[in-house]
Automatic annotation (TrEMBL):
<dbReference type="InterPro" id="IPR003029">
    <property type="entry name" value="S1_domain"/>
</dbReference>
<dbReference type="GO" id="GO:0005737">
    <property type="term" value="C:cytoplasm"/>
</dbReference>
<dbReference type="InterPro" id="IPR004659">
    <property type="entry name" value="RNase_E/G"/>
</dbReference>
<keyword id="KW-0479">Metal-binding</keyword>
<protein>
    <submittedName>
        <fullName>Ribonuclease G</fullName>
    </submittedName>
</protein>
<dbReference type="Pfam" id="PF10150">
    <property type="entry name" value="RNase_E_G"/>
</dbReference>
<keyword id="KW-0694">RNA-binding</keyword>
<dbReference type="GO" id="GO:0016787">
    <property type="term" value="F:hydrolase activity"/>
</dbReference>
<dbReference type="InterPro" id="IPR012340">
    <property type="entry name" value="NA-bd_OB-fold"/>
</dbReference>
<dbReference type="GO" id="GO:0046872">
    <property type="term" value="F:metal ion binding"/>
</dbReference>
<dbReference type="GO" id="GO:0006364">
    <property type="term" value="P:rRNA processing"/>
</dbReference>
<feature type="domain" description="S1 motif">
    <location>
        <begin position="38"/>
        <end position="113"/>
    </location>
</feature>
<keyword id="KW-0460">Magnesium</keyword>
<dbReference type="GO" id="GO:0003723">
    <property type="term" value="F:RNA binding"/>
</dbReference>
<dbReference type="InterPro" id="IPR019307">
    <property type="entry name" value="RNA-bd_AU-1/RNase_E/G"/>
</dbReference>
<keyword id="KW-0378">Hydrolase</keyword>
<dbReference type="GO" id="GO:0004540">
    <property type="term" value="F:RNA nuclease activity"/>
</dbReference>
């Protein structure tokens, strides 16, 4: 499978946004804006409030709104000032890392379990356990438990990422040592920094994407017309094909990114069969309705299964493309045969399993409504392009196929 990451400026409404677009065999799978990334940034924060009823505190890191901090999930708190006890109090200054962006009605989330992410492993301060990616079969567990055991310590734990499967032991060891050095540098210096200081900036969207890809095992390339981004990636000694686009014809037009954006902001998504999805965002969840549309046949049960499976594949793609998170309810076309329902669930499970963010197929109700949950990492696409999403119904819903 040929995969490609395109990084360029996308023009719309006389504005420019730098975006990254990921393609698999020429089909767009992900589209995100490239902005100053708050995720994984490390700050000195101040405790502004403690709410025992929800077992949480709220931390000011100097970005405006206070951030949510779980007391249950953060047992090893790195304080800036010496304390006689380990009890968190209002006014304390602590080292935190941003783990989730703010939502419309939810604050950003910070943690004191500082993580440093590499291509093969993640090392985690405050959590000294050895972890293995859920995507790796148990056949690999013994190898990684043995590798992790060689680095057992009271300072940090290690999580082996999916990419580590094809890596040599010495490459994994080298990366652990490099990440360990970065952690030690942080721990040696943070107590000398002032409150609200940003000690580490989060890596960009495209850098995160490249880190999670096993570029050594896939036909992967990156093309960009941004010289600064090209030089940044080039300096990291990439093991993939990196190209600076210098032709006169705009890169965003070459890959039809404007059209792809309009379709990704539209409520209606046409399928090749003539059926379509209708996607609606609410405060509580995202609802996706599968409609048979222009598809017509006498063999309804067979047709419904065919449409539903086609829709299931597109639902999985739309979750990634639109960066939909939280609860998603999919209303597939009703099917009477239980074996058809089981086949649909089997296919849908296989489609969403490929999602690197982490999507879970929860269940199907008696009303044939399927519930999917997806981890929130970044703002959904319609929020990233909020300035134009409000006009989607006027112009974008007319775009077909």
């Amino acid at each position: 499978m040929e995969t490609k990451l395109v990084i360029t400026n996308l023009k719309y409404n006389d504005n420019n946004k730098c975006v990254s677009a990921y393609f698999e065999n020429d089909e767009i799978i992900e589209l995100n804006t490239i902005e100053d990334n708050l995720i994984n940034s490390v700050y000195i924060g101040k405790v502004e409030n403690i709410v025992p009823s929800i077992n949480a505190a709220f931390i000011n890191i100097g970005i405006g709104e206070d951030c949510y901090f779980s007391l249950k999930d953060n047992q090893s708190i790195p304080y800036v000032n010496e304390k006689k006890d380990n009890k968190l109090k209002i006014g304390d200054e602590i080292l935190v890392q941003v783990s989730k962006e703010a939502g419309k009605k939810k604050p950003a989330v910070v943690t004191s379990n500082i993580a440093f992410t590499g291509k093969y492993v993640v090392i985690t301060y405050g959590n000294t356990k050895i972890g293995i990616s859920k995507k790796l079969s148990k056949n690999y567990h013994e190898r990684f438990e043995n590798l992790g055991g060689k680095f057992a310590n009271d300072l940090y734990g290690i999580v082996f990422r999916t990419n580590s499967v094809n890596a040599r032991d010495e490459d994994i060891f080298s990366e652990i040592r490099e990440l360990e050095g970065r952690l030690n540098k942080l721990l040696n210096n943070y107590k000398h920094r002032s409150c609200y200081s940003k000690l580490i900036s989060g890596i960009t969207e495209y850098e995160q994407f490249i880190l999670r890809c096993d570029t050594s095992q896939m036909d992967f390339s990156v093309v960009t017309d941004n010289v600064d981004i090209y030089e940044n990636l080039k300096n990291n000694n990439p093991n993939y094909n990196l190209r600076l686009y210098e032709d006169d014809y705009p890169l965003f037009k070459l890959y039809n990114l404007e059209s792809s954006l309009k379709k990704a902001l539209s409520k209606k998504v046409w399928l090749k069969s003539g059926a379509f999805l209708y996607i609606e965002h609410t405060e509580a969840m995202t609802v996706i309705d599968v409609n048979s549309g222009k598809y017509s046949t006498k063999k309804k049960e067979e047709a419904y299964l065919k449409i539903n499976i086609e829709a299931a594949k597109e639902v999985a793609r739309q979750l990634r493309l639109r960066n939909i998170s939280g609860i998603c309810i999919v209303d597939f076309i009703d099917m009477e045969r239980e074996e058809d329902q089981n086949e649909l669930m089997k296919q849908l499970r296989s489609f969403i399993k490929k999602d690197p963010v982490g999507a879970t197929l929860v269940d199907i109700t008696k009303l044939n409504l399927v519930e999917i949950t997806r981890k929130r990492i970044k703002k959904p696409l319609y929020e990233q392009f909020a300035s134009i999403s409000s006009i989607q119904e006027q112009s974008f819903d007319d775009i077909e196929k």
